[in-house]
Amino acid sequence: MRVLGVDLGSKRIGIAVSDRSGTIASPLTVLQRSGSVARDHQQIAALVLEEEAEAVVVGLPLNMNGTSGPAAQAAIKEAKALATVVGVPVHTSDERRTTVSADRAMIEAGMNAVKRRKVVDKVAAAVILQHWLDGRSARS
């Protein structure tokens, strides 16, 4: 099962994709927010078709104590709206500390700050997606 991972940001949307077996997540691209949520969702829907994804996983920014604050509520609302456009199931997955993990991995790989800024959103999307894929595998 091929799955698209989405890291919703206010300026950029990071996108990742799994391999066809649904085992490994890889960074795919970063979409710049257009100012129109509907247009942004259409871009994601186009990627779902292009990548032949059977599901979408949206990062859920829970508070560090696991509670759902305003950011999580906004992500849930956007995930529900996205589900009406993409034509495949949309799931959410805890994204606490994903950007920190992504940034740390890129620092360890020797990437400078300018290069990291350009790709951190899609790397964070891959971390979110990998976490969801690993959890799905453990539940099976």
Secondary-structure content class: alpha/beta
User: Based on CA inertia axes, which overall geometry fits?
Assistant: globular
Q: Order of strands in the sheet with the most strands?
A: 3-2-1-4-5
| Number of spatially distinct domains | 1
**How much beta, percentage-wise?**
15-25%
Average pLDDT taken over every residue: 92
Looking at this structure, what is the CATH superfamily?
YqgF/RNase H-like domain
- How many beta-strand runs? 5
Termini Cα gap:
14 Å
Q: What features would you describe in this structure?
A:
With 140 residues, this protein is α/β, with parallel strands linked by helices. The protein has a single domain (3-139), classed as Nucleotidyltransferase, domain 5. The chain is built from four helices and five strands, in the order E-E-E-H-E-H-E-H-H. A five-stranded mixed sheet has the order 3-2-1-4-5, with helices on both faces. Strand 1 (3-8) and strand 2 (12-18) form a beta hairpin. Helix 1 (37-51) crosses helix 2 (70-86).
